[in-house]
Specification:
Layout: E1 3-7, H1 13-20, E2 28-32, E3 49-53, E4 68-71, E5 87-90, E6 106-109, E7 122-128, E8 142-147, E9 163-166, E10 177-180, H2 184-197, E11 207-211
Organism: Stenomitos frigidus AS-A4
Protein name: Protein glxC
InterPro entries: Glu_synth_asu_C_sf (IPR036485), Glu_synth_lsu_3 (IPR012061)
Length: about 230
């Protein structure tokens, strides 16, 4: 069986997700009429192709591992939350906390992402074709975020080892985030991620934001004033 189609107007989502949790190596699954349902295609653990033909609600493709999930619409909060590997591609816009705590894999968002994109990122890569909202990459510990548009307030607040690349304007940087010179390795990394996402922007137009590493250790002498 090479391809399976489910229509959520006729088949309960629980049944669809149960099917997706079987050994499905190499199969293609298409989900019609998602109608903003929450928790579509969560917890996948096989190299399958899943296409969601419409808008999805909360936590679409959450905890993804190995699967390639494409969403032909917008998504609610927490898309690809805690993703371990694989690829999640949102063809529209993403609500708050896209890619939260994602540990591996690639999240691509063609449009804008709302507040807290990449919050607590732990190793995944995120490429956003549009802009991101305030507090994106808050406490991002590892991984890379490429933002082809603009960034809101407090970008990279309490940043650890994650690196952020921004093509547009930055409204403000968060605590301990700083602009740094782009290196040849940075240009290569941005070019590679843009190519994987299917975007054509010039890597030389991006800026690098990383941690100043002043918050790594508690200092009682500064009276909590950083």
């Amino acid at each position: 069986m090479d391809g399976v189609t489910f229509d959520l107007a006729q088949t309960p989502l629980r049944e669809v997700n149960r099917f997706l949790h079987q050994p499905l190596n190499g199969q293609t699954i298409r989900i019609l009429n998602p109608d903003g349902a929450h928790n579509i295609a969560v917890g996948l653990d096989a190299p399958v192709e899943v296409e969601i033909a419409g808008h999805a609600g909360y936590y679409a493709a959450g905890m993804n591992k190995l699967a390639n999930v494409t969403i032909l619409g917008n998504v609610g909060p927490g898309v690809a939350e805690n993703m371990m590997s694989g690829r999640v591609h949102v063809k529209g816009f993403a609500s708050v906390s896209a890619g939260a705590s994602a540990q591996g894999g690639l999240l691509v968002i063609d449009g804008d992402a709302s507040l807290r994109c990449g919050i607590s990122l732990k190793g995944a890569d995120i490429v956003v074709g549009g802009s991101v909202g305030s507090f994106s990459a808050f406490m991002a510990q590892a991984g890379r975020i490429v933002i082809c548009g603009n960034a809101g307030d407090a970008l990279g607040d309490s940043l650890y080892e994650a690196i952020i690349y921004v093509r547009g304007t930055i409204k403000s940087l968060g605590a301990d985030a700083q602009m740094e010179p782009m290196t040849h390795a940075d240009y290569e990394a941005v070019g590679e991620l843009l190519a994987k996402a299917g975007f054509s922007q010039d890597p030389k137009e991006f800026k690098r934001i990383a941690s100043a590493k002043q918050l790594y250790h508690w200092n009682a002498d500064v009276n909590q004033e950083y």
